[in-house]
Design a protein that fits this description.
Number of helices: 8
Radius of gyration: 18 Å
Strand order of the largest sheet: 7-6-5-8-9-13-12
Distance between the termini: 46 Å
Oligomer: single chain
């Protein structure tokens, strides 16, 4: 039997490998991913490499597989009261293209955008493209600390995390969702949902290895995290898969338990 970190691999219904990790293993994987991401932002990178990283992190919203996510952002803005500033908080913001998407929905709408991005050179790019944005260098842990310290702009109309929570260990992910729920009116989470209601691992930490992908993927029980925060899943929308590795990815729209559908 194949193993990873001494743990046996299991295979899901479409042939993808996953294993169950303990807390120490999960922390080690998370720290590996965080450090790998940060080293891409070394100040001594040459111009060509920096430009390549920025280009790689640009254009994600033209990917048709993200259509449900873009539609959910668009719907949230259009439902807001006319003339009111719409506030969005994003973690894992990359180059801040979400702000371009929002401005295209209603160019007359005043927007307030707060972004957290771990890679320093991408934070620089957000500030270059969007001088009016509040761009913070940091990931989920820095967001948690900022929320605990009284992050400006709360409550935000929308909290957004796209392909971000899956890179974070469960303990930090649970805390990030708890803080997001505390400072936002609605959550949009575009992520791997194969274990969103505990279908695979229950309370266990489930980690996938997708093909040749470098980074392990945490399959989080989002429903349990949200329930602990006093929230619930309002709806889920699946990504239109192009390969077997796309199956299970999709969108969660989450609201407080008392909110109407």
């Amino acid at each position: 039997m194949r193993e990873f970190l001494g743990e046996p691999f299991h295979v899901d219904r479409v042939g993808r490998e996953f294993f169950r990790a303990d807390a120490e293993q999960a922390r080690g994987l998370y720290e590996f991913q965080r450090n790998w991401w940060l080293t891409r932002g070394q100040e001594d990178l040459d111009t060509a490499t920096r430009e390549a990283i920025v280009a790689q992190q640009s254009g994600s919203y033209t990917d048709l597989r993200r259509t449900p996510f873009v539609q959910a952002v668009r719907s949230s803005i259009l439902k807001a009261a006319p003339g009111r500033t719409f506030s969005v908080l994003e973690i894992g913001a990359a180059v801040g293209e979400l702000l371009d998407v929002m401005r295209a929905v209603d160019p007359s709408r005043s927007l307030r955008y707060t972004a957290f991005e771990l890679l320093p050179l991408l934070v620089d790019e957000i500030r270059r493209r969007h001088p009016d944005a509040a761009a913070h260098q940091g990931g989920a842990e820095e967001f948690i600390a900022a929320a605990d310290a009284g992050l400006a702009g709360a409550p935000h109309d929308l909290f957004v995390a796209a392909l971000t929570i899956c890179m974070i260990e469960p303990a930090v992910a649970r805390s990030a969702i708890d803080r997001a729920a505390a400072v936002s009116r609605k959550l949009l989470i575009w992520d791997f949902l194969g274990n969103a209601r505990g279908e695979i691992g229950g309370a266990d930490t489930v980690v996938f290895r997708f093909g040749e992908r470098r980074n392990p993927i945490f399959a989080h029980p989002f429903a349990a995290y949200l329930d602990d925060a006093g929230w619930r899943i309002q709806s889920t929308t699946a990504m239109n898969p192009m390969t077997k590795h796309d199956i299970g990815w999709g969108l969660i729209e989450a609201v407080p338990k008392e909110a109407p559908d």
